[in-house]
Each structure stands twice: as structure tokens, then as C-alpha cells.
Design goal:
TIM Barrel, 10-stranded antiparallel sheet, alpha+beta, 47 strands, globular, 5 domains, 852 residues, 8-stranded parallel sheet, Immunoglobulin-like
């Protein structure tokens, strides 16, 4: 069993501060932590000063089923005995210098078998037969278990914790439910058709990370196991548990709320990281130190993506592209699903429908737009298909238990499944994205990995047999949940390599695991055009962000069924304020490009798209902060307001960074929403009307179909582009407007990250700008937040909008080496909004603006 690791204790020396015949007490050289390890029964208690933070195995549910030899039947024993006699006869011939008569001239002398050479089945005590121990059946499928049952499990007790979050992916509320007495939360990546809501069933991805929060403390548990895993959650009272007496001794008698969490995995080892906080920001950083942070995406991928299964042909793609221009709608990316490939042979193009893919891509590039094509990890079994032939000849497919290539049924029909756990396979796959290998591809073609759970239509639960064989002798049951991550990794590596390591990749994947954030974006899978699916996308994306997957979104409009116009409008409004913004639809649904709706609905969607593109500098800065620090982009309110218990259960609204609060309208026919504005002493400004509201309060806000309730927190500065063009690349050098929302103390601050938007130069050459804007004492100051960065840019500050300001007598601009200059301004006394026009200063320079 692997050791339980406390991440906060990394690099901190532990010393023995006490011991007896059954326990040892360890103290950290730095910090107030103490660990009490008890041998029989095994238990680990983690204390901070005299407070018990967490106990491991306090309920005695530790389980570790080791590999074992199957029980040998009488007939097997007879066969083994006869085989042993025959071996002795052969050895006799060998010792006499004779040849084995059954082997002819090629026979070799045999050594006398030693005890250690006996067949494994006969070594040790035969194990007792158990139902399903050595083989299980599921419908028509059979799962052999050559090592017998190998489950592992462990319980964790969290005194003082009532609210736990994480362990995505589930279509459920943000706060995890008590599952004791019912079905535990399941983590097992599956291709689920029309998934159920508010259910602990497994979905497409799995991240075995659970976060616990109370007003004073945050903790995390990272259960590093890629096998099928179940998480059972129970609510308890610390004063009534096995270690209640210990709590009474340490903290006095009384009852303390407690959450107990039991982890169970089908196989593997117990490898657990305890994330000790103490704040939620600390937990995010500790987890990021183990699995990495969100990859910084190229700027275009934060724009709007138009997709469906499927755009018919090149003419259809170009018509959709032109439709956005004709209707004055921004769009960055058009997507192609499985029908674009020749007979669903990935890395190819259907010759009748996409005969000139390079010409199509060049046309999109002239509009500064991109194309995404699907490349799934199942390969059509076809002797004339180069991809299949190479994989078969190189032996890079997943194998069956008898050593032959594993084949399953998926979109192309009979398909092989590349073994992405093999580094050679991943390198081969990455090389397939070179422009020579992927014929018809171009620099503005990017990739979508779907079906990477993996999906096997004729497999158990629509996935691979658990006894399939992977590189290194691992069974599929051991690595199932990490398979999709390896697909995502190899594809991202391929897009990086095709540019010589210069260009940042964009890859969307459906299946994921801990660490998938390093390779691109994810989404919530095949949702449905129903109001409840619109509503559930908020807690689903919030849960993903809490475990590092910040670049997430949901299919706008719903994948299945046809949305009514009101639902589609509301989905665009929500999608515009979620990190990954893509409309997508099933093959059997009606076309739903925005201009196909009645004009009043099209106008509202145009407005939502405009809000998205206006905020792209803000979005890009948030993704950089997530990349740099591991903090989520889309945040539950409790992350920013950890002591406000009202926020702990809220999952119909959220924060973007620490600046914007969004409450999407997710009910049919809604005329108003209840918005909770948190924060003692905070002020919140409606971004449309600039009306000021004080927190904390629950506000009833009337809405119309065109309303998107969004508030900017007083004390923040948000950068925007005010000219919405056809794509983000057309806007990247446009001037910036700063929206400065003042706190009650008359202060505000914010950041802006800029680079070229698409290369790794921000890392390799330090070619970036990170500007800090601070407002205090009636002065707005721009300074460098990271002096190591340098980036020449034509972007200038076009306007400054100060919300919550009085009317000054004069406004003066100061820049280094230049005399003071007066700025023109306009003040609205009704909204207390002050607009400073055309400061005309480069965004990279240091400057200050003074209100006098």
C-alpha cells in the first residue's frame, strides 16, 4: 500500500515527538501539524494544534485485496501431475545425453525444475472460491480475472465539515449529496446516451478529487487511482464516531458535524494525497503542484464555435462561414464531425464532399477563422487504410487476453483501439498530425477527440472489456479512466510538434482524468435541449473548475432534440459567460444557426455574442491566471466568500474570476430571478444599467428575454474590446476600454494579460505583458505586474469608464518623461459614471490618471 501523502508537508521535515508500543506521533518542523499513526488497527489522525482535521481509517474500512492464485480443481491437479511426470522423463533423457524423442534433433536439455519454477497455480494455499471472484458476466460479456478480486478502499473522516464538492463528472448539484444507503458516486468513464440528471451515475470523465469546506478551513483528498471507483458519502457527528472520545478530549464534549467519505476502487494501489489548505486557494495550488495547471489556450478558442453533426460538404461550410458575415455575427471556429472523413477513416477527407480541404481552410484563414475536425481513437479495420495497417504491423493496438488485436464496434464499423498507454503509440499518433501525414490539413485546422472513454458500441456498458491487455501487461481495468487523458495528451503533442513546438494547440476531449487540464478543453457531453439540462450545466462546469479543468462548457442549445427559440436564446446567453462557448447539435436535429431564428431572437443572440467578444481580454486574462496559479476561471461563490454560509449551496449563479457575478436565466417564461449578492460591505454594479446594489442581500431582478443578469464587483477593473468584429483575430490589436468599478472605499484593481495570442513565446521568450491597474486616492495607475515580460503592441487605452465616481474638476494624465495633459471627460450624475475619453496611451507603458 502506498503511503498517504500530505501535500502541505512537502519538503517539511517530520520528527518523532512521541511513541508507544502501538503508535507514533510525528511533528512537522514547520507549521502546526501533527500526525498520530496507530498500528493496530491502522489509523492516521492529522491534527492542527489541538484540532483534529482529518482521520484516515477511523471507521476501519481499509481494504486491500492482493493478487492471488486461483483455486486449482481436481482435474487441473491431475493434468499438472501428468505434466510433471512427462517433464521428469524428458530430464532423464537429457541427463543421459539422449534427445527427447518427441522433439527430434532440435531438442534441448532441460534443467530439473526447482520449487520456484512450479506453476503459479500450485504455489501457496489455494484460495477459496467466491462468486464472481475469477470471472464475471455482464449481459453477453465475460470478464476474466486472472488475478482474482483486487479491490482497494479506505475511509476518511472530516470533522467539522458538512459541505463537500468535486469528484466530477456527474450531472448533479454542486454540493455532493449523502449517498449512504443509496448508490455511491461512480467514477468510470462511459459513453452515456442521454444521461440522467441529479444522479450519481458515471459519465464521460473522472477526476477523483474531493474538496471539503467550512467557514474556517478547506481540505482536499486526491485518490490517485484510474480504475473504476466508487465514492460513498455519509453525514455523521464526530461525537458519535469511533474517535468521538478523542474529539471530546481535544475540543471538549459536544457534537461536531462531520462528513465521512469512503473510496473504493476495483484494482490498483492506495495512493492518496491530502491537500491541507488551509484556504481554498492553497488547496488549488497544492493540487496544481501534483497534476499541473490549465493549459493557456490560443485566443481564438475563447471565441464562439459553430458546430453540428454534420456540415454536409465544403459548400455547406463556406455558406455557414458567409452567414456569420452576412448577419454581422462574430465566429472564430467551424467544426466538422465524423461524416467529413472518408468512411469515418480519421486523418482523411471524404473525396466527394470535401475534395479540396486545403482550399476550404485557406478560405477560412482569409477570414481569420479556424476549422476543427474530429479525430476519434478508434480506427477502422480495413486492409487498405494506411493508419490501420501501420498500427497493426507495429503491434500498437490494445490486445485481447489471448494476445490478438482487440476489436470493437464503433462509428466506422469494426475498429481497432490504439493503446495510448504505450509511449511509442502516443509518439506515433502525434506524428500523424504533421502536415505530410494528415493530408489536407493546415495551420488553422485543430482537433476534437470524441469517444475517448473509450466508446465501444458492442462492449459492456458501451466501453472496452476490462480484461483487455495494455502496454506493460496492465489490464484495461487498471487504466480505464486515464485512457482518455492519454488520447488528449498525444493529440495535443501532435499539434504542438507540427509547428516545431511554436504554436499552442487546441484540442477538445470528452473523456478526462486528473491532469487533463494540461492538454486543452473539455465539455459536458451529449446533453439534451431541455431547461433542466441548461440549468445543470452550471454546477457541472463549476465542479470541473474546482478540480483544475477550467476550460469547460456545455453544448449550446443541447445536443439531442430541437430547442424552442426561448431555450436557445437563454442557452446562448449562458454560453457567452462560460469558458468554452460552442453550439453543437445531433445529426437528426434541425439546423439552428442563429440567423435561422426569427429576427427578434437573432438580435438577442447577436447581443450575447457581442458581450462575449467584448470581454475577450478579460477571459484571456482569467485563463492566464488559471494557467499561472491553478485557480478556477468559473467559481462558486463560496470560493470568493468562504465564510458566507449562504453561498455554500448556491449553484445557479457563479463568479468569473473575482470581478463578475453571473446569474443566467434558466427557467422557461421567467420574468425575474432571485440573485444573491455576497460580501459584507461589498457593492455590485449591474453592467448594463450601472445600478449599484449592496451585499450581502438577495435581490429580485426583473428580466426580459434579452436580459443576462451580470454584475461587476466594486473594487475590480475589467478590460474590454468595444469593437466586435468577425473573429477574435480581427480584434486582437484593437484599443482597450477599462471598466473601473469602485469599492465603497473608492478603490479598485485588476490585471490584463497580452501576448501574441497563439505561440509559446510567452514562455520561451518572455514575450508577454501582464499589466496591473490600481485605483486609489482618485488616481488610476498602470504598472507592470511581471517585469520579466516584454511585448511590443500597438494596443492603446481608448477609454476609461469609472463606475461609482463623483464629478471631478479636472482629469490629468501623467506619463514618464512627458508633461501632464488634460483629458476630456463626461459624468452622468444619475449613474455616477465617469467616462474618460481617449487617453491615447500605449497599454504597455506606465502611466497615471488623476481625478482632481
Amino acid at each position: 500500500m502506498a503511503a498517504v501523502a500530505a501535500v502541505a508537508a512537502r519538503r517539511r521535515r517530520l520528527s518523532v515527538s512521541g511513541r508507544d508500543e502501538n503508535s507514533v506521533e510525528l511533528t512537522m518542523a514547520e507549521g502546526p501539524y501533527k500526525i498520530i499513526l496507530t498500528a493496530r488497527p491502522f489509523r492516521l489522525d492529522l491534527l492542527e494544534d489541538r484540532s483534529l482535521l482529518l482521520s484516515v481509517n477511523a471507521r476501519g474500512l481499509l481494504e486491500f485485496e492482493h493478487q492471488r492464485a486461483p483455486r486449482v480443481s481436481f482435474s487441473d491437479k491431475v493434468n499438472l501431475t501428468l505434466g510433471s511426470i512427462w517433464d521428469k522423463i524428458k530430464n532423464l533423457f537429457s541427463r543421459q545425453g539422449s534427445k527427447d524423442p518427441a522433439e527430434g534433433d532440435g531438442a534441448r536439455p532441460e534443467e530439473t525444475p526447482r520449487d520456484g519454477d512450479k506453476p503459479e497455480e500450485t504455489q501457496g494455499k489455494a484460495e477459496k472460491d467466491e462468486p464472481g471472484a475469477w470471472e464475471e458476466t455482464f449481459k453477453t460479456h465475460s470478464d476474466s480475472k486472472p488475478y482474482g478480486p483486487m479491490s482497494v478502499g479506505l475511509d476518511f473522516s472530516l470533522p467539522g465539515m458538512e459541505h463537500v464538492y468535486g469528484i466530477p463528472e456527474h450531472a448533479d448539484n454542486l454540493r455532493l449529496k449523502v449517498t449512504e444507503g443509496g448508490e455511491p458516486y461512480r467514477l468510470y468513464n462511459l459513453d452515456v446516451f442521454q444521461y440522467e440528471l441529479y444522479n450519481p451515475m458515471a459519465l464521460y470523465g473522472s477526476v477523483p478529487v474531493l474538496l471539503a469546506h467550512n467557514p474556517h478551513r478547506d481540505l482536499g483528498i486526491f485518490w490517485l487511482n484510474a480504475a473504476e471507483t466508487w465514492v460513498d458519502i455519509s453525514s455523521n457527528t464526530a461525537g458519535k464516531t469511533l474517535f468521538g472520545k478523542m474529539m471530546d478530549y481535544l475540543q471538549g464534549s459536544g457534537e461536531t458535524p462531520q462528513t465521512d467519505v469512503r473510496w473504493m476502487s476495483e484494482t490498483g494501489i492506495i495512493d492518496v494525497f491530502l491537500l491541507l489548505g488551509p484556504s481554498i486557494s492553497d488547496v488549488f495550488r497544492q493540487y496544481a503542484s501534483l497534476t499541473g495547471t490549465q493549459a493557456l489556450p490560443p485566443l481564438f478558442s475563447l471565441g464562439y464555435h459553430q458546430s453540428r453533426w454534420n456540415y454536409r460538404d465544403e459548400a455547406d461550410v463556406l455558406e455557414v462561414d458567409q452567414g456569420f458575415d452576412d448577419h454581422n455575427l462574430p465566429c472564430d471556429v467551424i467544426w466538422l464531425d465524423i461524416e467529413h472523413a472518408d468512411g469515418k477513416r480519421y486523418f482523411t477527407w471524404d473525396p466527394s464532399r470535401f475534395p479540396q480541404p486545403r482550399t476550404m481552410l485557406e478560405h477560412l484563414a482569409s477570414k481569420r477563422r479556424k476549422l476543427v475536425a474530429i479525430v476519434d481513437p478508434h480506427i477502422k479495420v480495413d486492409s487498405g487504410y494506411r493508419v490501420h495497417e501501420e498500427l497493426r504491423n507495429l503491434g500498437l493496438y490494445v490486445k485481447t487476453r489471448d494476445g490478438s488485436d482487440y476489436e470493437g464496434w464503433c462509428w466506422p464499423g469494426s475498429a481497432g483501439y490504439p493503446d495510448f498507454t504505450n509511449p511509442t503509440m502516443r509518439a506515433w499518433w502525434a506524428n500523424m498530425f504533421s502536415y505530410d501525414n494528415y493530408e489536407g490539413s493546415a495551420p488553422n485546422l485543430f482537433v476534437w477527440n470524441d469517444m475517448n472513454e473509450p466508446s465501444v458500441f458492442n462492449g459492456p456498458e458501451v466501453t472496452m472489456l476490462k480484461d483487455a491487455q495494455h502496454y506493460g501487461g496492465w489490464e484495461h481495468r487498471d487504466v480505464h479512466n486515464i485512457y482518455g487523458l492519454y488520447v488528449h495528451m498525444a493529440t495535443a503533442d501532435g499539434l504542438r510538434q507540427r509547428s516545431g513546438g511554436m504554436e499552442r494547440p487546441f484540442v477538445l476531449a470528452r473523456a478526462f482524468f486528473a491532469g487533463s487540464q494540461r492538454f486543452g478543453a473539455v465539455w459536458t457531453g451529449d446533453n439534451t435541449a431541455e431547461w433542466d439540462h441548461l440549468k445543470i450545466s452550471i454546477p457541472m462546469c463549476l465542479s470541473l473548475g474546482l478540480v483544475g479543468l477550467s476550460f469547460c462548457g456545455a453544448d449550446v442549445g443541447g445536443f439531442f432534440k430541437n430547442p424552442e427559440p426561448e431555450l436557445l436564446v437563454r442557452w446562448y446567453q449562458m454560453g457567452a459567460y462560460q469558458p468554452f462557448f460552442r453550439a453543437h447539435a445531433h445529426l437528426d436535429t434541425g439546423r439552428r444557426e442563429p440567423w435561422l431564428l426569427p429576427s427578434q431572437h437573432n438580435d438577442i443572440i447577436r447581443n450575447a455574442l457581442g458581450q462575449r467578444y467584448s470581454l475577450l481580454p478579460f477571459w484571456y486574462t482569467l485563463l492566464y491566471q488559471a494557467h499561472r496559479e491553478g485557480i478556477p476561471v468559473m467559481r462558486p461563490l463560496w470560493v470568493q466568500y468562504p465564510q458566507d454560509v449562504t453561498t455554500f449551496n448556491i449553484d445557479d449563479q457563479y463568479l468569473l474570476g473575482d470581478a463578475l457575478l453571473v446569474h443566467p436565466v434558466s427557467d422557461s417564461g421567467a420574468h425575474g430571478v432571485q440573485v444573491y449578492l455576497p460580501g459584507q460591505g461589498e457593492v455590485w454594479y449591474d453592467i448594463q444599467s450601472y445600478q449599484k446594489h449592496h451585499g450581502p442581500q438577495t435581490l429580485y431582478l426583473p428580466v426580459t428575454l434579452s436580459s443576462i443578469p451580470v454584475f461587476q464587483r466594486g473594487g475590480t477593473i475589467v478590460p474590454r474590446w468595444m469593437r466586435v468584429r468577425r473573429s477574435s483575430e480581427c480584434m486582437k490589436d484593437d484599443p482597450i476600454t477599462l471598466f473601473v468599478a469602485l469599492s465603497p472605499q473608492g478603490t479598485a484593481q485588476g490585471e490584463l494579460f497580452l501576448d501574441d495570442g497563439h505561440t509559446f513565446n510567452y514562455q520561451t521568450r518572455q514575450e508577454f505583458l501582464l499589466r496591473r491597474f490600481s485605483f486609489s486616492g482618485n488616481t488610476l495607475v498602470s504598472s507592470s505586474a511581471d517585469p520579466e515580460g516584454h511585448f511590443e503592441t500597438p494596443i492603446w487605452i481608448e477609454r476609461v469608464v469609472i463606475i461609482g465616481a463623483g464629478k471631478p474638476a479636472a482629469v490629468v494624465l501623467q506619463t514618464k518623461g512627458s508633461p501632464e495633459s488634460r483629458l476630456s471627460f463626461q459624468h452622468d450624475p444619475e449613474t455616477s459614471v465617469l467616462v474618460l475619453r481617449k487617453p491615447g496611451i500605449n497599454v504597455a507603458s506606465d502611466w497615471s490618471i488623476h481625478l482632481r
